[in-house]
Amino acid sequence: MKEKVLITWSGGKDSALALFELQKTGKYEIAALLATITEDYDRISMHGVKRILVAEQSKSLDLALDEVCIFKNASNE
Predict the structure, then answer these.
(1) Which is the most buried residue in 10, 22, 33, 65, by most CB within 10 A?
(2) What is the pLDDT of residues 19-46, one digit of tens each?
(3) Residue extents of the structural domains in the chain
Protein backbone atom coordinates (compact mmCIF):
# COMPACT_ATOMS: atom_id res chain seq x y z
CA MET A 1 0.00 0.00 0.00
CA LYS A 2 1.35 3.42 -0.96
CA GLU A 3 1.74 6.13 1.65
CA LYS A 4 -0.72 9.01 1.14
CA VAL A 5 0.89 12.45 1.07
CA LEU A 6 0.02 16.08 0.44
CA ILE A 7 2.39 18.12 -1.66
CA THR A 8 2.69 21.83 -1.10
CA TRP A 9 1.86 23.64 -4.30
CA SER A 10 2.83 27.13 -5.40
CA GLY A 11 1.84 26.73 -9.02
CA GLY A 12 5.43 27.05 -10.20
CA LYS A 13 8.03 24.85 -11.79
CA ASP A 14 9.59 23.73 -8.50
CA SER A 15 6.28 22.36 -7.28
CA ALA A 16 5.73 20.62 -10.61
CA LEU A 17 9.20 19.06 -10.48
CA ALA A 18 8.69 17.88 -6.89
CA LEU A 19 5.37 16.29 -7.86
CA PHE A 20 6.97 14.60 -10.86
CA GLU A 21 9.80 13.19 -8.74
CA LEU A 22 7.39 11.87 -6.09
CA GLN A 23 5.19 10.24 -8.71
CA LYS A 24 8.23 8.73 -10.40
CA THR A 25 9.22 6.82 -7.25
CA GLY A 26 5.93 4.93 -7.21
CA LYS A 27 6.04 4.94 -3.39
CA TYR A 28 3.40 7.58 -2.74
CA GLU A 29 -0.22 8.31 -3.47
CA ILE A 30 -0.64 12.05 -3.88
CA ALA A 31 -3.82 12.77 -1.93
CA ALA A 32 -3.97 16.45 -2.84
CA LEU A 33 -2.09 19.61 -3.65
CA LEU A 34 -1.85 22.01 -0.70
CA ALA A 35 -1.78 25.72 -1.50
CA THR A 36 -1.60 28.75 0.78
CA ILE A 37 -3.81 31.51 -0.59
CA THR A 38 -3.69 35.16 0.47
CA GLU A 39 -7.40 35.97 0.60
CA ASP A 40 -6.92 39.71 0.06
CA TYR A 41 -5.26 39.13 -3.31
CA ASP A 42 -6.83 35.77 -4.28
CA ARG A 43 -3.34 34.54 -5.11
CA ILE A 44 -0.77 32.01 -3.92
CA SER A 45 1.07 33.58 -1.02
CA MET A 46 4.67 32.91 -2.08
CA HIS A 47 4.62 33.61 -5.80
CA GLY A 48 1.43 35.53 -6.48
CA VAL A 49 0.02 32.94 -8.88
CA LYS A 50 -3.72 33.46 -9.32
CA ARG A 51 -5.98 31.04 -7.47
CA ILE A 52 -7.86 30.18 -10.68
CA LEU A 53 -4.61 29.04 -12.35
CA VAL A 54 -3.77 26.75 -9.43
CA ALA A 55 -7.32 25.36 -9.56
CA GLU A 56 -6.91 24.65 -13.28
CA GLN A 57 -3.53 23.00 -12.64
CA SER A 58 -5.00 20.66 -10.03
CA LYS A 59 -7.89 19.85 -12.35
CA SER A 60 -5.55 19.01 -15.24
CA LEU A 61 -3.44 16.84 -12.91
CA ASP A 62 -6.61 15.12 -11.65
CA LEU A 63 -5.63 15.94 -8.06
CA ALA A 64 -7.68 17.59 -5.33
CA LEU A 65 -6.68 21.08 -4.24
CA ASP A 66 -6.67 21.85 -0.53
CA GLU A 67 -6.41 25.54 0.29
CA VAL A 68 -5.19 27.23 3.45
CA CYS A 69 -6.32 30.85 3.41
CA ILE A 70 -4.48 33.65 5.16
CA PHE A 71 -4.76 37.43 5.14
CA LYS A 72 -2.12 39.82 3.80
CA ASN A 73 -1.04 40.91 7.29
CA ALA A 74 -0.74 37.39 8.71
CA SER A 75 2.40 36.84 10.77
CA ASN A 76 4.58 33.74 10.64
CA GLU A 77 3.53 32.90 14.21
Answers:
(1) 33
(2) 999 999 999 999 999 999 999 999 998 7
(3) 3-70
What residue type is 19 in one-letter code? L
Residue 77 has pLDDT above 90, yes or no: no
Are 24 and 56 contacting, i.e. CB atoms less than 8 angstroms apart? Answer: no
Say which DSSP state 14 is in. Answer: H
Sign of CA dihedral 67, 12, 30, 62: positive
- Whole-model pTM: value is 0.87
The distance from CA 52 to its chain's CA centroid, rounded to whole angstroms, is: 12
Report CA dihedral (36, 38, 42, 47) to the nearest 10 degrees.
-70
* Distance from C-alpha of 40 to C-alpha of 68, rounded to nearest angstrom: 13
Pick the closest to residue 2 from 24, 22, 28 (CA basis): 28
